[in-house]
Structure formats: structure tokens, C-alpha cells
Structure prediction request, 863 residues.
Amino acid sequence: MLPPQPSPVSFEHLPDGLGIGVASPRLTWTLPAGTGRQVSYELELERRGGSRRTGRVDSAEQVLVPWPGDPLTSRERATVRVRVWTPDAAGPSEWSTPAHVEAGLLDAADWQAVPVGADWAEDPEGERRPARVRKDFRLSRPVARARLYVTAHGLYEVEINGHRVGDEALAPGWTVYPHRLRYRTHDVTAHLAEGANTVGAWLGDGWYRGKYGFDGGTRNIYGTDQSLIAQLEVEYDDGTTHVVATDGTWSAAPGPILTSGLYEGETFDARLHDPAWATPSAAGTGEWTPVRTGVRDPATLVAPLGPPVGCTEEIAPVEVTRTGDGRHLLDFGQNLVGRLRITVDGPAGTTLVLRHAEVLQDGELATRPLREAVSVDTLILSGTGPLTWEPRFTLHGFRYAEIIGWPYDMTAGQVTARVYHTEMRRTGWFECSDPLVNRLHENVVWSMRGNFVDLPTDCPQRDERLGWTGDIQVFAPTASFLFDCAGLLDSWLTDVGLEQLPDGTIPWYVPVIPGEPMWTPIHPGAAWGDVAILTPWTLFQRFGDRELLRRHFPMAKAWVDLVERLAGPSRLWDTGVQLGDWLDPAAPPDDPAAGRTDRYLVATAYFAHSARHLSLAAAELEFDADAERYAALADEVADAFRRRYVLPSARLTSDSATAYAIALAFDLLTPEQRGPAADRLAEIVLADGARISTGFVGTPLICDALTDNGHLDVAYQLLLQTECPSWLYTVAMGATTIWERWDSLRPDGTLNPGGMTSFNHYALGAVADWLHRVVGGISATAPGYRRVSFRPRPGGGISWARVRHDTPYGTAALSWELTATGMTADVTVPEGCSATVELPGCAPLALGPGDHVLDTAELGAAA
Prediction:
């Protein structure tokens, strides 16, 4: 009997293969349950001109396997399927279900489209009313196949014959636009018909020319035009083609969106909206005028590396309160990122104002933390009947919303919060016997969702929302467990490399926008700049993508070389602008870098850590000379760290929790120094009542530093503390996301007075990685989880935990429970992987793929 079929192949890190920008995409598949491991595979590639098979390939590789044929050409379609041989089967498996891949426009010469937008006078420094653009055309024969390749200077939503194309939001997302503008491919065959057709697009300012950034923001960061770039390619039933590309024959007109901004919100006048505007019946109506054409280097148009932003959930309000003056205050029970969708009817000219905030203060929306992101949407009714509406080109961070002007009593279903973020596949889950810890973990998940909006941002609600490098550097291990974020982060790291200065400096945030006076001009800073090597390394470990590591290696090397020059022969990085242990709870609200830990101790520690990881990356890539050179450099920096910052007693010159955590976690101490340093770390934690005393740098490290050095009990005390500052303090205060500051909301219910007071900020949620590895007990010991360690280390009164992760090879899971005689554990090892299980009191046990039920009593553990 043949073994069952493997999964359909997937392509690169994409949700599907349509419009792929890689001519030779790598292939991944998982093995069917019960097959154990793969010894050989065969791929079948069907494309125009026939099909070919690789023949049996003796290999256990099944993740990111090389493309088996000639590279794809632009627009080329192929079908791929795989079958495998396993050790105990008499023959190969059944073939997998066919998977389809289709190349996008791989050559700049494929593009005919040029940017088109409104050709009327605008004030480049003021609010500008967005335009819509459209084109009428005829198709002379039945349509066999049609593709729309589309992007914009700004944001866009496309309609064909009155039907929306796709469902992504804030397209094309935010990249370093002068170098990379992302386009997307849509199958629009079903949208078209023989005869008259119309394609049209809504346009918005977005990041391209909207007001964005600090202190009132900057307009026109990338340009002043608002333009669509679209190429519709139609293949008729006889094989001939017809192309409709944006050019001077298109028309533009003001739309019913009066104003729109990512921070400001959106104003929509339904009296100005013709729902049939993008259909042939609207030809010759309205204020349509010829477009202005622009210029775009087609070589800068790139296909996506990951999924788009979209609506992933809808949430109804848990409470609606009508105030005495007629406003409606809505509580959605969850701090989220998204928009309201409302269904309403009323007389023409009725104006509804929608305001948003994360928290309440004295029963009213607390909008001070939003700073200049006013987050107000306005709808003006047409009076023609019920209207369902949500804004198009803005997002808000909120739990609470206020609606002013609702014309009658609000009923169930009339207002919904729609949650938006990059549509990453969920891959990690955790729960345990402590409900507060479970809520903490959920808060981490929600903060990741709200801040992974095309790129990893720092906060989704105020006038910032930037791709801070330090934040994702510390959070990447957690992020890569919870969601398949490899494509999104690979794309963003590509932009980090493009924004890297010629001397190797990595910006504080990417894409770079003006940030005077603190962030512009750009200075190299530890922990933030180290994203160049540490985050690619994390992604390699979690997703097994060696080519990702290779692509970003030059950026990483340039960064470490820069720090080597800055440190000089002393190997101490003790100069320049450093943020240190940012947002140490002891730092003043107006000076988050003024923590208890010497910022140059932090800088030198990161120098050693990044040099070490650059050596490891070089060894993986078989760059032997670099591996040797940077290993030696890491040793030299570690020696310098000890000479400068470690006293003869093994105490550090900065006697702070972060200093000891970083020295222990980065392996900067001698074996003789580790024990005393770990004991001192535990003393510091307990002397402060096991409350948090670390910021962005120390917080992700402290639990591991304690756990790995004999103080697991103290790590659990830190985790389970409910007094401020602590992780569970925020939970006890009703948090549903991770806060930027430990006391964003103070024990007396007042807001932190600092200008940086976000209630949705994932960095301090990096502890979830420790929850997954230590409390839950799952960690990768080979890239992509090819080898898995199952080692739960219970404590703190937690009596059971369940953790699951969908690795590139399949599901790894561990469910454990304490019993009167020890522990029972259910273990799932992915097919094609191996594992080591180490339960408390038991010797390590090697396991193969499949489900295993273990009991420490039976394994010989002490009762």
C-alpha cells in the first residue's frame, strides 16, 4: 500500500504562487502523518511545452528545496507536485495535489503602464482631496484569462465593472519607495466580459505624500503626486491579447472622500458618491478630466515577499453607552487596530463623527496619548437609504470609540470593529494553568497583530507607527513563533539594507523619514543597529532559510565593521549616541534612555554578541575566513568587556538587573564569574520584590539569564508578579495588549504623563519567547526545527501547560501536567524531524516523528 500524499507544495514564504517575483522559487512540503521521514523525493513540473520529472532524488530535504527546472519567464504558469519515499514503504507516496505558480512581471521591459493622477492644481502643503481615476475600454472576444498588475504612488483600491478587485488594505504598503515599490498581481478573469468594460481606482495619500512622522509630521516625503500604476492584460479565447495600461487616455475626478490621512482619519461625503462610477454606464458623467502622467522607473517595481494587509476579524461592541448629550460610547473589549464599519440611515447632510482611543479617562476618550494623530472619521449621509461604510485609507488603534450624531437608537450589528494587519498565518499557541499568564500571552498576540501592518511598527495609534529596528530585534524570536512572518520581515530587512548608510550605520527606524532633532541626523546605536545580524539569524533558526541569511549578510557585515571602527583597538564601544536600556522603569518619563545601566556597557555587549553571530552566520554560509575573523573579534570584545565592566568580585560596574542579564545571556563572563553574577542578579530582583527593573534591552533577557544559571524560581517570581512594574500588573489593570511603559496606566488610574504612552507596543512582550521555550518547553535545536527540544521547566505553581508550533516541517506540540508522581507529557514530533525530550528528573530521551505519551514515573524519575 502506498503511503498517503504529502501536502501541496508552497512557494518561498508566500501564501500562494500568483504573481511571484522569483524566477526560480523554492518549494516546501510537509510529509503525511505516520511516514516518519523522507529518504527521497520526486518533483513533477508541468508548464507550457509539456511536463518533466526530476526522477528520484535521494534527499531528506523538504523545506525551501531548489526549483527543479529552468527559471520561469514573465507571466509563465507552472504546476508542481511532489511524491516521496519513506523508509518502510514499498514504493513512493501518492502525488501531492497540484500547486500552481505564476510569475509576475519579472523584467522592467514588461511594463507599459505609467503613473496617472489628477491634473488639477493642489496645495502641496495642505490637505488635498483624493482623486479617482478610470478608463473605459472594449473587449472584442470572450476572455480566457486576465491579470491586473497594480501599484500606486500613495494608496489604491481598484474596481472593475463596479466590483472590487482583491480585498487588501493600504496597498501597496510601505517600502523604501525610491528603490522598491511593491505591485500585486490579481486574477480578474471573472470581472470582465466581452464588450464594454470599465476599470477605476480610488486613490489615497498614504505614506507616500501624506503627513507622517513626529511633531506635526512631514508631507510629501516621497513625492507630491497621487498616482495609479496599473496594467491589465487580457488573453482572449483565441490566444490573442489586449493590454489596458495607465496612460494619458485615462480620466480623473474628485471622489467622495474629502480628506484622508493615516493619522488624521477620513471624511466621506456620500452625497458625492455614485456607486456606478466604475462601470460603463457612468461613461460621460461627472467631472472627469484627462489625467496627468508621471514617470516611474519600472526596474523599481517588485513583487511581494509576503502577504498583504487585510481584515482578519470582526468584533462587535461589548457595551454601548448613550451619553446625556446624545453621543454613543462603544467599548469593544479589546484594544485593536482597524476601522469601524457602520450601517446607518438618515436625512441628507446628517454628519456622523467617529472618534477613537485606547483607554478612557474619567469616562471619556483619552486622546492625549495619540498626540497629533487625531484619528477622527467623518461620514456625511446622502439621504438615499441605508448605507454601510468604513474608511478606506486609514487605520486606528483603539478599544473605545465615540460616535457623535447617530440619528436614532443604535441596534446590534450596526457598528463593527474590523481588525486589520498583515495576513500572516498563525503558527504558535500557548496556554497554562494560570489565567493571568494566558491573558498576558493573548496580549502579546494582539500587540503583534496590531503592529505588523506591512512592516513591524512600534505603535499603531499615535503620530509615529514607524519600523523601529531595536523593537523587532528583541521581539523577532517571539514573532517568528506566533506567526509565519518570514516574508514580511525579509521584505523589511531588504529595506533596512537599502537605508543603511555608506559607513554601515543602521537607522533607528526603517523606512527613514525626518525625525529632528533626536533621530535626524542618524547615529549608530547598539541594540537598534544590531537588527542587521540578529534578526536574519533568528529567521534562519526559526524558518531554516539559509538564502535569507545570505542575502542580508553584507548588511550585517557592514554593521559590525562599523562598530569595530568606532570601538577602535580598545574594542570598547564607549562613544556616541546610545539609547541604553530604553524605558527602564526608573528612567524619567521625559528621558527614557536615562536608565540604571551604563549605556556603553550595553553597547559593548551588543558589539560582542553581534560579532559572534556574524561569525556563526559566516560559518553557515561557508565563508570560512569571515567565520574565523569575527569569532576572534567577538573573543576580543568579550575580553575587553570583562576588563572594563566586571569587577574582581564578579560584580559589574553597573550593578543593575539589565547589566547582569546581558552579560549572562550574551555569554560575556568566564565560567568562574557566571555563578556570582547570576546570584547577584537574583539578589537584585528579590530586593525589589520581584518587580521589573529592566527596559527594552534587559526585559527579553532576564528570565533566560536567571533560568539558565540556577534561579528558575526567581524567573517565575518575576513572571507572576502583579505589582507595578510587572507583566501581570498590566493584566491586572485590564490591559488587552502590551504597553510601551510598565506604568502607561498608573495604579491610581491616571495616565503616565510622558509623551510616549502607548498601550499597544510589542517590545516588552518579548517574554513570550521564554513562555514558549521554558514554561511550554519547545525550542528549535536545528534550523527550521529540524531537531526539536522538548524541555518544560515548571515553576511558580503552574501545574500544566500546552504549547504548539507549526514548524516548516509540520506541527510540534507539547502538553504537560504535574501529577502526584511527577509529570505526564504528550509530545508531537513533526514528520521528518527528530527530538530530544527532557522531563524533570529524567535523563534526556531521543524521539522520532509522531505522537508520544510519557510519564516521569515510568521513565524512572524520582517521585
